[in-house]
Amino acid sequence: MSLSPSRLPLVAVVGPTGAGKSELALELAEHFGGEAVNADSMQFYRGMDIGTAKLGVSERRGIAHHLMDFLSVREDTTAAAFQAMARASIADIRARGKLPILVGGSGLYVRAVLDALDFPGTDPLIRARLEGELDAHGLAPLAARLELVDPVSAARISDGKRIVRALEVHELTGRTFSSFMPERRYMEPTVQIGLNGDRAQLHARLRDRVHRMVSAGLQDEVAALLPQGLREGRTAHKALGYQQFLRVIDGESSAEQAAEETITATRQFARRQITWFRADPRIHWLDWGQPKLVDAAYEIVRASTGGQP
């Protein structure tokens, strides 16, 4: 089934890790004639496959997936750079009469694509200095500084990378990082479908998934990425599972302990994702366990086109 190019919305499939976003995106792409645009920031990295639950080529049903595997583990990107790449991919997909489907749980990256969102510039010297302070003194002093200059951002963010970014923006522009977050306003006709479900069931799904990753060779995948610069990259080595199994390789932990730590960290991450996406009233939420889930998603997309089949 296909939609008229003039009636193609941008579809975004969002929600917590483990909710089944990739599978639903495949169903929508097959049904409506679409292509996927990845918005999971850890799936940008080549070789990080098992630990990110990345669909293998043979699992993609012949459907094109954009913005996967374009970074080495030594490299990094920004939300602003991703915004430009994703919007270019979406425009290309639509120009070919296909339905663009953004899929992933990296909340800021999703919003960067969907909304009228401008990003302040960067200063490598300021960034490097702040990162040096983070490495030397830990998170607490920077978090305290952010609380003084931007209490709104301080209440929202807790990881070192984003605190450094918020302080960099304040020092560079004199404005708070939070002041750059706009009202929710789509750049183009868009429909968001969110997947969520029973919390206990999600926890069980995440536990099972981590154990499958370990059985599939997550530790070997981490070891294979070391010669490619996994430790040297600023972001990749912090990914869930990878940082835990790096400690196993270093002899600081056991595989069993790393698996349990990964399960705990993944549950915490999923909770933060749910909080982020629940704040967006425009999302159409579906329970992943509901009968005829896929049919319900089809109807949401069809309704966004005025009922056109």
From TrEMBL:
<keyword id="KW-0819">tRNA processing</keyword>
<comment type="subunit">
    <text>Monomer.</text>
</comment>
<feature type="site" description="Interaction with substrate tRNA">
    <location>
        <position position="127"/>
    </location>
</feature>
<feature type="binding site">
    <location>
        <begin position="15"/>
        <end position="22"/>
    </location>
    <ligand>
        <name>ATP</name>
    </ligand>
</feature>
<dbReference type="InterPro" id="IPR018022">
    <property type="entry name" value="IPT"/>
</dbReference>
<keyword id="KW-0067">ATP-binding</keyword>
<feature type="binding site">
    <location>
        <begin position="17"/>
        <end position="22"/>
    </location>
    <ligand>
        <name>substrate</name>
    </ligand>
</feature>
<keyword id="KW-0808">Transferase</keyword>
<keyword id="KW-0460">Magnesium</keyword>
<dbReference type="GO" id="GO:0052381">
    <property type="term" value="F:tRNA dimethylallyltransferase activity"/>
</dbReference>
<dbReference type="InterPro" id="IPR039657">
    <property type="entry name" value="Dimethylallyltransferase"/>
</dbReference>
<comment type="function">
    <text>Catalyzes the transfer of a dimethylallyl group onto the adenine at position 37 in tRNAs that read codons beginning with uridine, leading to the formation of N6-(dimethylallyl)adenosine (i(6)A).</text>
</comment>
<feature type="region of interest" description="Interaction with substrate tRNA">
    <location>
        <begin position="40"/>
        <end position="43"/>
    </location>
</feature>
<dbReference type="InterPro" id="IPR027417">
    <property type="entry name" value="P-loop_NTPase"/>
</dbReference>
<protein>
    <recommendedName>
        <fullName>tRNA dimethylallyltransferase</fullName>
        <ecNumber>2.5.1.75</ecNumber>
    </recommendedName>
</protein>
<dbReference type="Pfam" id="PF01715">
    <property type="entry name" value="IPPT"/>
</dbReference>
<comment type="similarity">
    <text>Belongs to the IPP transferase family.</text>
</comment>
<feature type="site" description="Interaction with substrate tRNA">
    <location>
        <position position="106"/>
    </location>
</feature>
<keyword id="KW-0547">Nucleotide-binding</keyword>
